[in-house]
Amino acid sequence: MIEDLPMYMDELIVHHEVVVDQSSTSMSTSMPEEMCSTAEKEIQCDIPTLGRFSIEGMKLDTKMLSYYTGLNGYDHFMLLFNILGPAAFDLNYKCGLLSPQDQLFLTLMKLRQAKEDVELAMLFKVCESTVSKIVTTWINFLYFQLKELEEQFWPSKDIIKEHMPTDFAKKFPNTRVILDATEQPIHKPSNVEAQSKTWSSYKHKNTLKTMVGVTPNGAVSYVSSTYGGSVSDRQIIEHSTLLDVGKFDAGDSIMADRGILVQDLFANQNVFINTPTFLKGKSQLDPEEIVRDRRVTSKRIHVERVIGLAKRFKILKHELPMSKIPLASRIVYICFMLSNFRNCIVDKSA
Questions:
Q1: pLDDT in tens, 161-189
Q2: 316-332, pLDDT tens digit by residue?
Q3: 236 is in which domain, residue-wise?
Q4: How many domains does the chain have?
Q5: Residues 257 and 184 in one domain
Q6: CA–CA distance, 230 with 227 (Å, rounded to integer)
Q7: Has residue 70 got a pLDDT over 70?
Q8: Which pLDDT value is given to residue 52?
Q9: Based on the domain organization, do 209 and 324 belong to the same domain?
Q10: Given this model, what pLDDT does residue 292 score?
């Protein structure tokens, strides 16, 4: 199991030299002042100066703010910031050059666009080591603040039913959560044992694996800890909080992929695991089983769509460097829970 833990760039100045020969000089001096001014205006162009990035500077540019953070605009950003509470102004690491809002902005840029520290240092005009400290501090802060909302992210059975899409409610009314595993690539570890534990036979590379759960209407309700890519889906669930007493009500149903074989783990809670049918020695499925499996697949796709949405945070798609492995569980958790700060992607009639 991967345990949870907690440059200065000189400004580039380009000097332009203008070489003018004698003939051009004499010509320019003979031109009337108003003509010279008009000519200069025709050939001059404004070269914009790139100032320090800030959330205030992006306030009116909704498109770019969405590109850098995944949020819908400035109001959306401030909603997230205010949810984090006043503790954002009193973190252990304080950067006097950037406001807490800009530190959050920088961190979201790191997660959303997987930008290198050196680029963020240039954009925010701070040193590279400062960027690293800000990102580490805010990943830990975001994780713990969002973790406090975990009970709200896991809605009650009544709330699930109230917001369940109509067609889903007709076919699978007892579904509490839809589960699926997702993997994130990492740099190949130098340690042989770590290579073995993180090797994914499915992805054919070194990865970290996480179990994700969404409600029938597409809200992320569960994110497990992160494990090496060699771990099985069953092993993740065996060590998860999904087995905690009181997590499910009797009669609840979990929708999952065919490979998640955990019915025995939930049997004592009277929770049913709804997966596509195995052939079990048969050459083909019965027509009724085929129809049922298609229905399950059409609903289970919601979790795949949500995972795809979360992976728009490019840090989950790029190979995570070994220096960030201690923060892996928290990074994954943040990216998926931030996916809840957007409009629902599942239609009410789905």
A1: 999 999 999 999 999 999 999 999 999 99
A2: 999 999 999 999 999 99
A3: 151-338
A4: 2
A5: yes
A6: 8
A7: yes
A8: 87
A9: yes
A10: 85
Number of other residues whose CB lies within 10 A of the CB of residue 67: 13
Rounded Cα distance between 269 and 66, Å, is 43
Note whether 305 and 328 are same-domain residues.
yes
Q: Would you say residue 349 lies in a domain?
A: no
Which range, 1-5, 23-27, 279-283, has the best average confidence (pLDDT)? 279-283
Residue at 183 is within a domain: yes
- Res. 233: pLDDT tops 80: yes
DSSP per-residue letters across 231-261: S-HHHHHHTSGGGSTTSS-TT-EEE--TT--
182: buried, middle or exposed (CB in 10 Å: 19+, 13-18, 0-12)? buried
Specify whether the CB–CB gap between 299 and 168 falls below 8 A: yes
34 and 176 belong to one structural domain: no
Of 126, 148, 170, which marks where a domain is finished?
148
Q: Would you say residue 264 has pLDDT above 80?
A: yes
Residues 214 and 332 in one domain: yes
281 and 313 belong to one structural domain: yes
Instruction: Kindly list the distances between the CA atom of residue 20 and the CA atoms of 27, 39, 298, in Å, as whole numbers in the listed order.
Output: 11, 16, 72
User: Residue 348: which of 175, 139, 126, 170 has the closest Cα?
Assistant: 170
Residues 158 and 142 both lie in one domain: no
Helix ranges (DSSP H) in the chain:
22-30, 33-43, 62-69, 74-83, 100-113, 117-124, 128-147, 150-153, 157-162, 166-171, 192-198, 233-238, 263-266, 287-310, 328-338
Q: Catalogue the long-range contacts made by 234-238 (C-beta closer than 8 Å, 24 or more residues apart).
A: 234/260, 234/261, 234/262, 234/265, 236/181, 236/209, 236/210, 236/211, 237/179, 237/211, 237/262, 237/265, 238/265
Residue type at 315?
A: I
pLDDT at residue number 40? 42
Whether 345 maps to a domain, the answer reads no
- Whole-model pTM? 0.82
Write down which residue in 115, 148, 181 finishes a domain: 148
| Same domain flag for 204 and 246 | yes
- Asked, for residue 2, whether it belongs to a domain, the answer is no
